[in-house]
């Protein structure tokens, strides 16, 4: 099953006010600004990430996600996966090296859900920020805000989940870790992983293609999630839900919005997944408990506010 995709590598988000967005992602969430380019894009990373960036902010008139990128093991694998994608039926666009600063060539394709993804093999290795690679300290002492540990996953809304599943599982080598089934046994949510994490990307059935629900960042502890909630209130940041626990994945979570209306999550904990694990199944009639384990009721805004 393994095809050579290693992990999520980056997400590019559209923002309405680049200065306000940088304050949100750097000052509040604790990401580190690494670079800017002549398109006005800003590159950021979390402190434990070893590559140059994981979040790219692009000024635009409409919020949302441009694309999500995954890193593959080497350039030969990148070439082979490009051929596999084309054989499956995806049009593949090659983006030249350095179109994103510090990143090698990328292969971009659109999933049946309407979302754009890309694969790449090379990115400038900067190492963890603020700590040495020899005898490293436990953490940098000058981190700000929520002190996000890493970019973790995206949740995306769109249609054609079965075809998207086929693409990610049978072409890219992901595994189904968790799912939600309706009364007819049809899958209406799928949580896919290419690592030990419960999900590296997830899809929810939605009639409109290509919608963005949230980008998620990992924190170390439940106490850090509660501290994030305090910071959200201290800064009058728009909150969606939490702190609470998910039934799906069992992560401990809080959701909030950047100044452009893009939803963010910070979370800790959550289940793990090995390739021999069978998928965990939730039923749609229990979706309230699946999403918000404590309240056991759906927050309409959580389901309907998308960018």
TrEMBL record:
Instruction: Please verify whether the record's keywords include Lipid biosynthesis.
Output: no
| GO terms, molecular function | catechol 2,3-dioxygenase activity; ferrous iron binding
Give the enzyme's main class according to its UniProt record, as a single word. oxidoreductase
The record's section on InterPro entries has: Catechol_2-3_dOase, Glyas_Bleomycin-R_OHBP_Dase, Glyas_Fos-R_dOase_dom, VOC_core, Xdiol_ring_cleave_dOase_1/2, XylE-like_N
- Domain VOC span(s) in chain numbering: 7-122, 150-269
Check the record and name the SUPFAM superfamilies matching this protein: Glyoxalase/Bleomycin resistance protein/Dihydroxybiphenyl dioxygenase
Cofactor or coenzyme needed: Fe(2+)
Q: What Pfam families has UniProt attached to this entry?
A: Diox-like_N (PF22247), Glyoxalase (PF00903)
Enzyme Commission code(s) on record: 1.13.11.2
Keywords of the record, alphabetical order, are:
Aromatic hydrocarbons catabolism, Dioxygenase, Iron, Metal-binding, Oxidoreductase, Repeat
> Catalysed reaction(s)?
catechol + O2 = (2Z,4E)-2-hydroxy-6-oxohexa-2,4-dienoate + H(+)
| Protein family per UniProt | Belongs to the extradiol ring-cleavage dioxygenase family.
Q: How does it assemble?
A: Homotetramer.
Report what the protein is called. Metapyrocatechase
Species: Halopseudomonas phragmitis
């Amino acid at each position: 099953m393994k095809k050579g995709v290693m992990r999520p590598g980056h997400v590019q988000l559209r923002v309405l006010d680049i200065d306000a967005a940088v304050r949100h992602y750097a000052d509040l969430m604790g990401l580190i600004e690494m670079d800017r380019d002549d398109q006005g894009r800003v590159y950021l990373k979390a402190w434990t990430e070893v590559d140059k960036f994981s979040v790219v902010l692009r000024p635009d008139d409409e919020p949302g996600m441009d694309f999500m990128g995954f890193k593959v093991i080497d350039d030969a694998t990148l070439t082979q996966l490009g051929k596999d994608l084309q054989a499956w039926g995806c049009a593949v666009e090659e983006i030249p090296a350095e179109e994103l600063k510090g990143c090698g060539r990328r292969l971009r394709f659109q999933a049946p859900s309407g979302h754009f993804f890309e694969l790449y093999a090379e990115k400038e290795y900067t190492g963890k920020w603020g700590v040495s690679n020899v005898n490293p300290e436990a953490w940098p002492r000058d981190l700000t805000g929520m002190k996000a540990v890493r970019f973790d996953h995206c949740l995306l809304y769109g249609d054609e989940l079965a075809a998207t599943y086929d693409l990610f599982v049978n072409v890219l080598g992901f595994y189904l870790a968790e799912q939600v089934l309706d009364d007819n046994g049809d899958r209406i949510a799928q949580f896919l992983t290419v690592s030990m994490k419960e999900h590296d990307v997830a899809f929810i059935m939605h009639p409109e293609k290509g919608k963005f629900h949230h980008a998620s960042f990992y924190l170390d502890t439940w106490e850090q999630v509660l501290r994030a909630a305090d910071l959200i209130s201290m800064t009058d940041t728009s909150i969606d839900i939490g702190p609470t626990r998910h039934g799906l994945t069992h992560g401990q979570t809080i959701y909030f919005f950047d100044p452009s209306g893009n939803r963010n999550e910070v979370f800790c904990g959550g289940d793990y997944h090995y390739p021999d694990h069978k998928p965990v199944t939730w039923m749609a009639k229990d979706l309230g408990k699946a999403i918000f384990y404590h309240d056991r009721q759906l927050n309409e805004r959580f389901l309907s506010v998308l960018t």
